[in-house]
Design goal:
By secondary structure, the protein is α+β, with helices and mostly antiparallel strands. The protein has 25 helices and eight strands. The strands form two sheets. A six-stranded antiparallel β-sheet has the order 4-3-2-1-5-6. The chain has a two-stranded antiparallel sheet with strand order 7-8.
Length: 573
């Protein structure tokens, strides 16, 4: 990412010296000079530089051939030292693991597992595997023959590691194929006391010399040519052209037509420009001038002009269905239905009773949502959010109003979901994951349950920072969607696998924060053991003991948790 950003910035700045040179060569012909400068600065330079400055893969992404000579050599070293591994395992002073060949879904793979003991020339091992249906990841416990062990590790409480010979094989293959390892990868290998790995000098520094050289040449050209009056005149002319073009764009957008050129929803059809040119009027108000405000809605409410409100929104909906206004503009106007004071609720209720309008329902729900969003915490925010949810349910269950009887899934229903989606809970990636899961399960969840399930599963500590409130919300969601138990732990498992990935890459502090999010949605022994492991890595031994004791409270036979409690307790005392 940094590589692309640097190349993009330098290429952008390179346009001006390239234009200066081209302008001199072509005797002030701006049209030709601009084309040549664009080709050199934004075409040839980034193409050449990106070809020379190749991005290297991360070492954990490398696909390793177990039959590679470098790997075979390290496997032989590991097997020759198996006696030392067995002695260390039997001493119960180390955390032991082995690397072995195992068939998963019919394909033989080399995986790591936790070693528990030796029995009949085999290592008793726990490891992750797919269940019999090939769908879920479970923990298996197997006896792995010593002849199938290709590597092993013994870790002590100080973080020193014996064995791990395959790590050296992977590092040597990486250096052979892709050059020097990153400094962080070399640092991670330093904890392996048995390795004799020799890292190559870092090669990325050469790229900074290239960057310095390119930038220096560009600056030198600028300094030499900017003193030429003719070049200054050409630059001034070019700058005037840019200013003139910018003024035209500002004028064009100020007229409202920018709303119809909505890249976010992919709308750029000529028909949208034709609609703008038609200058569609609704009751004397331009639908594109972006002037329909909350104050207009309040004035019509206070004057009890409910029919006028319904007429406007019905015409607006018709224009949207005819694609004469963009989806973005349509949604933008509907979002203004959310008022910011509870005192407007009686007026909105009168509108709802007078016309049975779906837009009145939407206005009530949006108003509760707006109030909840402003409060951002405490019981009042929770209660107003629940009011919004109840009103959205009413809106979806209504059938008399035209907009709801059609309930176009491409417009009205997504707008309702998006409104709930906008409450101050959760981060962007979490929202997208939940959105995908619930869309896949929508056929199993009634429409009335769908938005509430989405909202409650999106709760995060950002909402007032009250962990207990968040947990209550998660429990409420589980109760509310009890006919679909898969929703109960779905988010928790996503956080668990994310924490597992972070932990394996050495990001134990981030992994601990992430696994805590998983534990908001239920307690599984695997989740707790992952939490305890990361606490140990961070030196939080007392907290780790408490976590492993929680594991034993759930499953008193869990060997891993029992051993860790004994080892950590002995170390603390």
């Amino acid at each position: 990412m940094i590589r692309l950003l640097i190349v993009a910035i330098v290429s952008l700045l390179a346009f001006f010296p390239c234009f200066m040179v081209a302008s001199r060569i072509f005797s002030g012909d701006n049209d030709v000079a601009v084309l040549v400068a664009l080709f050199l600065a934004w075409g040839l330079l980034p193409f050449w530089w990106l070809r020379r400055w190749q991005a290297k893969p991360r070492i954990e992404e490398l696909v390793i051939d177990e039959n590679d000579p470098l790997m075979i050599k390290q496997i032989a070293r590991a097997q020759n030292e198996l006696k030392r591994f067995i002695d260390g395992l039997n001493s119960h002073r180390f955390e032991a693991s082995i690397r072995f060949k195992y068939a998963i879904s019919g394909e033989e793979m080399t995986i790591w597992g936790v070693a528990h003991g030796i029995e009949d020339e085999s290592v008793i091992t726990s490891f992750e595997d797919l269940d019999d249906n090939g769908e879920d990841i479970i923990m298996r416990r197997r006896a792995i023959p010593l002849r199938r062990v290709v590597d092993w590790m013994l870790s002590d409480s100080q973080g020193n590691v014996q064995g791990g010979y395959s790590m050296q094989g992977v590092a040597e293959i990486y250096q052979r194929d892709h050059g020097a390892l990153a400094a962080k990868d070399v640092k991670e290998l330093a904890v392996f006391s048995d390795l004799d790995f020799q890292p190559l000098p870092e090669s990325h520094k050469q790229q900074w010399w290239w960057l310095t050289a390119v930038v220096s040449v560009l600056v030198l050209v600028m300094l030499l040519l900017v003193r030429d009056p003719s070049v200054n005149n050409e630059l001034s002319t070019l700058g005037d052209d840019f200013v003139h073009m910018s003024e035209e764009v500002v004028t064009f957008c100020a007229s409202g037509s920018c709303d119809d050129f909505d890249y976010r929803f992919g709308y750029s059809q000529p028909a949208r420009y034709e609609a703008w040119q038609d200058r569609i009027l609704i009751d004397g108000r331009d639908a594109h001038d972006n002037q329909w405000s909350q104050s207009d809605i309040i004035n019509l409410l206070q004057q009890q002009e409910f029919t006028q409100l319904d007429k406007y929104f019905a015409q607006l909906h018709g224009l949207y269905q005819q694609q004469r206004i963009s989806e973005y503009h349509y949604r933008k106007i509907l979002w203004r239905l959310g008022l910011d004071n509870e005192s407007y609720i009686p007026l909105l209720t009168q509108w709802q009773a007078a016309t049975e309008s779906s837009y009145a329902d939407l206005a009530i729900a949006r108003t509760w949502q707006t109030i909840a969003w402003q409060v951002r915490g405490g019981d009042y925010a929770k209660n107003t959010s629940n009011e919004a949810i109840a009103d959205f349910r009413t809106l979806m269950q209504r059938s008399k109003a035209p907009a709801v009887s059609a309930l176009d899934k491409q417009s009205d229903l997504p707008l309702i979901y998006e409104t709930l989606f906008s409450l101050p809970f959760g981060d962007k990636s979490e929202r997208e994951n939940i959105k995908t899961w619930l869309q896949q399960m929508e056929q199993n969840v009634p429409a009335a349950y769908y938005p509430r399930a989405r909202l409650l599963f999106l709760n995060s500590p950002k909402w007032g920072g009250d962990y207990e409130t968040i947990r209550e919300q998660a429990i409420a969601a589980q109760s509310y969607v009890k006919q679909n138990p898969q929703l109960r732990s779905l988010l928790g498992f996503e956080w668990y696998y994310r924490a597992q990935s972070l932990s394996r890459r050495g990001f134990h502090r981030q992994a601990l924060t992430t696994i805590d999010k998983a534990l908001f949605h239920g307690e599984y022994t695997d989740w707790l053991k992952r939490r305890g492991f990361d606490q140990m890595k961070l030196g939080q031994n007392q907290a780790a003991v408490a976590t492993f004791e929680r594991v034993l409270a759930i499953d008193a036979t869990d060997d891993y948790a029992l051993r860790q409690v004994q080892r950590l307790t002995a170390g603390i005392n």
